[in-house]
């Protein structure tokens, strides 16, 4: 009877990972991790606008309403519409940020990598500057409290020391993970936002006309009316301070989950707007106050508060400002992690401090940011100098994000009718913000530009260097080399290097090998072993995966192994390989590797291991352009700084071989040598006495001329002491200095 034919199975639809779910605990974490930067903006946004417009006496009702309108609609359009409603829809497996966005659209155009690199570099630069600016501003704000001012006075060195100490503690806490930090920061930031709303409501009653600022026409009129706005378009550079944390909000999506941001942003926005309206009402009510007009660097955020609670406000704002840097730090971890996946940055060790894969900690990034922040504080000393550079980099990132989102809407979602207006509208707004921020360049903005440029260079070098390497990468079928590998493993002419020789590879295929590995085994000092392993490590989205897959090519000496480890699993591959080999022996796929000698009574059937790490080396004969050669050299320098796989995979105490192989490339054309008979130069040898090597007068320079006397003396000593009769005679080497005769001396020539 014929077997029943099953109908073709339907291809299972890939279920998208839901990410971090909505929960009360994660809402608290979100408030502590995501909104620190944007949440502290009321402390300085209106203060900067007042200062840029000529002081308190110039802040008429129309001016205040116009400025408030710009702030409210900037928050609404940039943060709410662009990032919360549009950008957060463009997630890559629940990860956000400009690199996650680029990974979605990279197939739509090769040029898209440029805006992604520019935006990512600028955001990382801002992540370095933000902690320094916010913490310094907060600590300087403590001077407004009389008893604290009595302690620190105007001594800026004390402020700098306190700021550095706080930054050290902040970056040290990162290793605990954003979940733990969020639980610590969440209650503080919740209290902070409630305080912002309460302080605003206390002052809105001074002039209810401030609600007219909800009309966007007020903002447009203020922006283009020179009688109201003395700063012109440049005022946008100060208005932009209210939304500097929007990009970090998008980058931190993977840390806290999209639903938790959707749930918390309305609450945060309402608190911010209430505070801005309260400040505006206070400014209108006190425009004619002569005493306040005389206050240097007037800050309405603190001045609108009753004297009794001002000390508490300063203390709370200090904690909030410290927390503000957290959004950029955690966002930087996400950005670098995405950059590594895209081959824009070198592989670095990534830790997962919690049960959620989105919450990561990268020690190298944390340490670099920590050192850079301290350098910024030491360089600028005061927050007034730092603020000149603040926000410039973020305007660049926002412009680049707009470009990528436009491509995402038009090419991925096929909504060109929405993409074009989106690009025109947000591109125009952000270009105006960028243009107004350019005025900060010569007042400190150049620091952000320099940092961004250096980060961009790292990305460019790594990406271009990888592209050069890949043009020369060849994957060869393993089965074509089985005979040679079998013969080598049994060839007694070569010493046995190890029972198990392991090569680490990034190649996840199961039937091919990188040419470099085969070159290392067969051509560069042939490596004899009883068994060869080619190991690839894959990190899964589950926290505690422990799996492996083996292809043995129908042999008992060659294995391609893929270790599948969860992101919370310690990647000490030597211990896992021992289990793999033991399993192969148990299943009779590998002969027992019994120890002849051992300190143990029960000798293991698993032999010894050696790990071979392949490193490419640029050969002087490699035929690539001088520019690409410099790029490769820089890439290998960066790679050496970022650490070794031996450390990432726990091989510090294992037997490791570092094998350097040439970067396979087309060789430069070499001139063919022509051999001349010795008789052709015999007359010259008879006519001219031999000279020491390197003494040709044609090659002499100022350094060789200075050493000529010493060189001649050494040559004379060598001729007198080493050459005698028909054979060279050497004095015996004296090992014990006490046996030397007085006046005798063992020279370098004697030892040789």
From TrEMBL:
Transport of potassium into the cell. Likely operates as a K(+):H(+) symporter. Residues 674-752 are annotated as: Disordered. It is found in: Cell membrane; Membrane. Its main location: membrane. Residues 500-657 form the K+ potassium transporter C-terminal domain. It is a multi-pass membrane protein. Keywords: Cell membrane, Ion transport, Membrane, Potassium, Potassium transport, Symport, Transmembrane, Transmembrane helix, Transport. HAMAP family: Kup. Residues 682-693 have a biased composition (Low complexity). This is Probable potassium transport system protein Kup. Residues 708-719 have a biased composition (Basic and acidic residues). The chain crosses the membrane at residues 20-38, 63-85, 111-135, 147-172, 184-206, 226-250, 262-285, 311-340, 360-382, 388-409, 416-435, 441-462. InterPro entries: K+_transporter, K_trans_C, K_trans_N, Kup. PANTHER family: LOW AFFINITY POTASSIUM TRANSPORT SYSTEM PROTEIN KUP, OSMOTIC STRESS POTASSIUM TRANSPORTER. The keyword RNA-binding does not apply. It catalyses: K(+)(in) + H(+)(in) = K(+)(out) + H(+)(out). Residues 27-474 form the K+ potassium transporter integral membrane domain.
């Amino acid at each position: 009877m014929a077997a029943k034919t099953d109908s073709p199975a339907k291809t299972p639809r890939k279920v998208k990972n839901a990410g971090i779910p909505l929960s009360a605990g994660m809402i608290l974490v979100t408030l502590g991790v995501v909104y620190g930067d944007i949440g502290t903006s009321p402390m300085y946004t209106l203060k900067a606008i007042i200062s840029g417009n000529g002081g308190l006496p110039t802040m008429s009702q129309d001016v205040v309403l116009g400025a408030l309108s710009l702030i409210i609609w900037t928050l609404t359009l940039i943060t709410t519409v662009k990032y919360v409603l549009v950008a957060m829809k463009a997630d890559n497996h629940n990860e956000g940020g400009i690199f996650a966005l680029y990974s979605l659209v990279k197939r739509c155009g090769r040029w898209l990598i440029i805006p992604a690199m520019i935006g990512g570099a600028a955001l990382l630069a801002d992540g370095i500057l933000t902690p320094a600016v916010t913490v310094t501003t907060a600590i300087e704000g403590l001077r407004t409290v009389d008893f604290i001012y009595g302690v620190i006075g105007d001594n800026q060195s004390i402020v700098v020391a306190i700021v550095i100490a706080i930054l050290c503690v902040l970056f040290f806490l990162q290793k605990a993970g954003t979940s733990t930090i969020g639980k610590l920061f969440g209650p503080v930031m919740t209290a902070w936002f409630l305080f912002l709303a309460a302080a605003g409501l206390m002052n809105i009653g001074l002039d209810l006309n401030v609600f007219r600022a909800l009309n966007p026409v007020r903002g447009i009129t203020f922006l283009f009316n020179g009688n109201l706005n003395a700063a012109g378009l440049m005022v946008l550079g100060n208005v932009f301070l209210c939304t500097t944390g929007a990009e970090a909000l998008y980058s931190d999506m993977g840390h806290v989950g999209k639903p938790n941001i959707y749930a918390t942003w309305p609450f945060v926005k309402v608190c911010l707007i209430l505070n801005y309206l309260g400040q505006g009402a206070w400014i209108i009510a006190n425009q004619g106050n002569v005493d306040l007009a005389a206050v240097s660097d007037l800050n309405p955020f603190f001045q609108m508060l009753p004297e009794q609670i001002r000390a508490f406000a300063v203390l709370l704002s200090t904690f909030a400002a410290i927390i503000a840097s957290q959004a950029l730090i955690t966002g930087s971890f996400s950005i670098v992690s995405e950059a590594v996946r895209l081959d824009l940055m070198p592989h670095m060790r990534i830790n997962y401090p919690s049960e959620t894969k989105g919450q990561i900690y990268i020690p190298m990034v944390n340490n670099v940011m920590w050192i850079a922040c301290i350098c910024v504080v030491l360089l600028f000393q005061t927050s007034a100098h730092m603020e000149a550079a603040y926000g410039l980099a973020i305007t660049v990132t926002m412009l680049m994000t707009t470009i990528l989102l436009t491509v995402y809407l038009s090419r991925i979602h096929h909504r060109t009718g929405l993409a074009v207006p989106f690009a025109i509208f947000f591109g125009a707004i952000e270009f105006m913000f960028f243009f107004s921020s350019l005025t900060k360049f010569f007042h400190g903005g150049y620091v952000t530009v320099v940092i961004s440029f250096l980060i961009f260079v790292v990305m460019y070098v790594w990406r271009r260097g990888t592209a050069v390497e890949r043009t020369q990468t060849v994957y060869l079928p393993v089965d074509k080399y089985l005979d040679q590998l079998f013969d080598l493993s049994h060839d007694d002419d070569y010493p046995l290097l190890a029972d198990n020789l392991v090569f680490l590879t990034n190649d996840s295929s199961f039937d091919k090998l990188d040419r470099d590995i085969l070159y290392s085994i067969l051509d560069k000092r042939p490596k004899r072993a009883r068994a060869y392993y080619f190991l690839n490590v894959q990190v899964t989205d589950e926290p505690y995966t422990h799996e492996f897959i083996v292809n043995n090519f129908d042999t008992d000496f060659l294995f391609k192994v893929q270790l599948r480890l969860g992101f919370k699993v310690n990647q000490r591959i030597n211990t896992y390989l021992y289990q793999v080999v033991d399993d192969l022996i148990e299943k009779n796929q590998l002969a027992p590797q019994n120890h002849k000698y051992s300190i143990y009574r029960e000798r293991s059937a698993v032999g010894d291991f050696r790990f071979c790490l392949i490193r490419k080396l640029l050969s002087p004969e490699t035929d690539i352009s001088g520019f690409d050669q410099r790029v490769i050299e820089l890439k290998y320098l960066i790679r050496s700084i970022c650490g070794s796989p031996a450390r990432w995979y726990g091989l510090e105490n294992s037997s490791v071989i570092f094998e350097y192989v040439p970067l396979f490339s087309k060789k430069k054309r070499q001139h063919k040598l022509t051999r001349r008979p010795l008789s052709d130069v015999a007359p010259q040898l008879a006519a001219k006495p031999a000279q020491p090597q390197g003494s040709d007068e044609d090659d002499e320079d100022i350094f060789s001329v200075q050493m000529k006397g010493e060189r001649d003396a050494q040559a004379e000593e060598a001729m007198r002491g080493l050459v005698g009769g028909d054979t060279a005679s050497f004095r015996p080497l004296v090992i014990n200095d006490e046996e030397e005769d007085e006046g005798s001396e063992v020279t370098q020539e004697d030892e040789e």
